[in-house]
Amino acid sequence: MRHLEGTPRSQTRLLPPSVEDYVPEDHPIRVIDAFVDSLNLSEMGFRRADTAHTGRRPYHPGDLLKLYIYAYLNQTSSTRRLEKECHRNLEVLWLMKQLAPDFKTIADFRKDNGDAIKKVCRHFVVFCKQAGLVSGQLVAIDGSKFKAAASKDQVITRKQLEKQLGKLDQKIDRYLSQLAASEQEGEADLNRDKVSEALTYLKAHKAELQDELKSLIDEDKTQRCRTEPDAKLMRSGREGMVVGYNAQNAVDEAHQLIVHHELTQAGNDNQQLKSMAQGAHEALEGKIETVVADAGYSNGAQISDLQSTDYDVAVPSNRAINNQGTGEYFQKSDFTYLPEEDAYRCPAGQLLPHKTVSKKNRMHLYARTGCDQCPLQVKCTKADRRWVSRHFDEEALVKANDAATPERMIRRMATVEPTFATLKRLLNKGRFTCWGLSSPSSEYNLGVLSYNLMRAINVIGVKGMLARLA
Prior knowledge:
This protein is an alpha+beta fold and 470 residues long. 43% of the residues lie in helices and 16% in strands. It folds into four domains: 19-113 and 462-469, no CATH class; 128-149 and 230-312 and 400-444, Nucleotidyltransferase, domain 5; 154-225; 332-393, no CATH class. The chain has helices spanning 29-37, 61-73, 79-88, 90-95, 103-112, 114-130, 158-185, 192-218, 273-283, 300-308, 394-403, 406-426, 438-469, and strands spanning 138-147, 155-157, 223-225, 232-235, 241-252, 257-264, 290-293, 312-314, 336-338, 343-345, 351-358, 363-368, 386-391. Helix 6 packs parallel to helix 13 and helix 7 runs antiparallel to helix 8.
């Protein structure tokens, strides 16, 4: 029988004689090492970058940062597993110079240096800009829901609490009725001690729920996660409702590099366009031509502010239409706005003057009476009055909608959406392992940094990266 045979364990030189020989010269891990060594970690705010002259010597934050970048590139977020890799993984032995921190030290580094890690992300974007990897010609913005470490079962809402309190009241009334009936009829089978014990428990539980409901009302909140208050119950496409955070990415089209990112508690994207565009603007030092986002970012005030600073904003409109999808009635586009008169002219030639303002919806409303006498009423409305609305930022919304051509929206999808697929693969299948907004933000920062580093290596190669980092 002929099989491949391993090297005898008694051989004296199983590994190369030098640790430097553990990894080849073109291995991506050398880019991680060179990039972190090029950083001024003290200026970026890493804890323990500067040490005191007394006390126990800490691990250098650069070594722990290298370990985490390597970990996320290899889809390893468990700190206990990283502790083991420091003893047995030849690549990690080379990267860490045979240092082996314990899992608590590794976990604390991620928890305590979230802001500093984000500065490293920004520094790498500057490096990519200098290397010609980002252009700023088109920056696509999108968001995706990432699950929190907490379970969805730990979320409470006002409606749930009110429903539970109603059921508790029914149970308490039932037990009280049983006690009252037993006293009148003298029932000996009823165990009054157990009934009293159950009543005590139910009343205590009722008091706890009442306190939680009062707390939600006082804080003007509709929900809360008991074990992770920072996490929110959000709608997430095919997954339905999830407990988590809304991750936002601004991605440059040239090589799909993430130039700005945020982890937010917002349930939707409606308020995120301006902050993300401005963050990308700062990262690229103003070198942005076009900002593209989907209809979820359609916000008149924010679009208007961005257009006033010479951004080319392409965002489809996300507003209801009067036609109701039947094709029988005139749409708003069939009405002509007359700015001099601040009125609309309908297809029949009649004026719809300004009537009122809806500050809540940021709308001007226009209408006229006498539509029941119009020969075109059957194509316009069933009522005697036809209403037409005009947003406070109508011109900005129309301009952004016209700029959102099908070709641009395809480019947006191809630019930003793949980044979330890769990040969810790197980040524990889209579920954070840490609790609270701060620690998951650090996780997301590390994921984005690892993603960008991997993209840059794929574009210009290990040797090209090392040459630019030298």
